[in-house]
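Example pasted here:
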Amino acid sequence: MKEPKIRKIVTNLEEVFYEGGADMPIENGGKKSIKTVSVAAVIKNPYAGKWQEDLSELTEYGEYLGDLLARKGAELLGADAVETYGKGCLVGTDGELEHSSAMLHPKAGKPIRAAIGGGKSIIPSNEKVAGVGASLDISLHYKDAAFVRTHYGSFEVRVPDAPKADEIIMAVVLSDGGRPHATVNGVGRIGGLQKSEAKCEDGMH
């Protein structure tokens, strides 16, 4: 597996204790907060400024970073605690959108799942080409059943001095819960499939 040239890794850990006028309920798995972590790597884009038909080098980078970033995030949350996940890329302006897709889609998912001990649903992905300081809202959902409505969400990733024109940011986002106050007394406030009802067999329901 080919390793990318990493300029920096940026980690952001958010812990929500209070939202919408109320403390986080103890019913949320016995937790008093919801933690979400993003781990982003800023790497050199080997194809910046030139046409390259074969993007397999970036696919290898995605596999390597899927493992590295997810393991770092899981260390902060605890692999067994992870309920929600997502991934994304920001490509600098000398690159192209397909560079992001090469990193995210073919091989990144398997090591992310391995780092958190499983995950049956597809890992949501977001990507765009942008300049320095751009942000990316990475979509999230429940790792074992994508239709669990309480866990739909997003988390912003931004590195102030990246991506430079010849760089790519790849990020993995993990959370130990769904949205703050998505349930009251175990019942979803907007209905839909609940985590407790999910069969977690097909990655959807």
